Automatic annotation (TrEMBL):
Keywords attached to this entry: Cytoplasm, DNA-binding, Endonuclease, Hydrolase, Nuclease
Enzyme class: hydrolase
Family annotation (InterPro entries): Endonuclease_NucS, NucS_C, NucS_N, NucS_N_sf, tRNA_endonuc-like_dom_sf
Predominant subcellular localization, coarse grouping: cytoplasm
GO molecular function annotation: DNA binding; single-stranded DNA endodeoxyribonuclease activity
Coiled coil: none
Domain Endonuclease NucS C-terminal: 103-223
Its job: Cleaves both 3' and 5' ssDNA extremities of branched DNA structures.
Species this chain originates from: Ilumatobacter coccineus (strain NBRC 103263 / KCTC 29153 / YM16-304)
GO cellular component, as recorded: cytoplasm
Protein name: Endonuclease NucS
Family annotation (PANTHER family): ENDONUCLEASE NUCS
Location of the Endonuclease NucS N-terminal PH-like domain: 2-96
Length: 223
């Protein structure tokens, strides 16, 4: 992990053009090649980023010191460093991954046992399907034999949608899987997460935990 605090400007060229004017920012370079640029606000979401795999080239010329980040999609992120205030690198080592709480882990088990509760015709390929950036909760195939990556959360927020997008990027590097589509599943999903999921081409499904456990609320009533 390399963390650089610098007065910088940033230019992105790809699906659209975007520019961040000169200001002090945090630049994060992760060991997997992911690059993210943060301001001092905006919570966890970066101002701009490039998901791995990337190629990073450092250039010194008359235009100053620049990092040019590019990927196979021909997207380019150019970071011009006007003044470096701090530059720290640290090896974080292997991460054990997110430990799901009991309900979320059990929800994943229930959905793996009954994938048709997510979508008619789904067949489970594997739980915790491995990728270089972590396991996909459920990998399935649909009625047309297309691969479906499913991210399961107790509460569906936008970070879960971003997580699913990163997994699908990794899965699509494996040509044997073919085209991969995503489904975001949770007990409840926030409106913003639904909008983001749809904008990424994913579908979303809200499921009833008690119903999956065979404990429908009407069965608990005395009258």
């Amino acid at each position: 992990m390399r963390l650089v605090i610098a007065r910088c400007s940033v230019d992105y060229a790809g699906r659209l053009d975007a520019h961040l004017p000169e200001a002090n920012r945090l630049i994060m370079l992760k060991a997997d090649g992911c690059v993210a640029i943060h301001a001092d606000g905006g919570a966890y979401k970066p101002l701009n980023w490039m998901n791995a795999p990337n190629t990073i080239v450092e250039i010194d010329d008359d235009d100053g010191h620049r990092w040019v980040v590019s990927n196979h999609k021909k997207e380019t992120l150019t970071i011009t460093l006007h003044e470096v205030l701090s530059d720290v690198s640290e090896e974080l080592g292997d991460d054990p991954g997110l430990q799901k709480d009991g309900v979320e882990a059990h929800l994943q088990e229930l959905l793996a046992a009954s994938p048709t509760s997510i979508e008619e015709g789904l067949k489970l390929v594997r739980r915790e399907y491995p990728t270089a950036i972590g396991p996909v909760d459920l990998l399935c195939r649909d009625e047309s034999d297309q691969v479906v990556a499913i991210e399961v959360k107790r509460r569906g927020e936008i970070d879960g949608v971003e997580q699913l997008a990163r997994y699908i990027e990794r899965l699509q590097l494996d040509s044997s899987l073919g085209e991969v589509r995503g489904v975001y599943v949770a007990q409840s999903i926030k409106p913003q997460a639904k909008v983001l999921a749809e904008s990424r081409g994913f579908t979303w499904v809200e499921v009833d935990y008690d119903e999956l456990r065979g404990m429908k609320s009407d069965e608990l009533k005395l009258f």
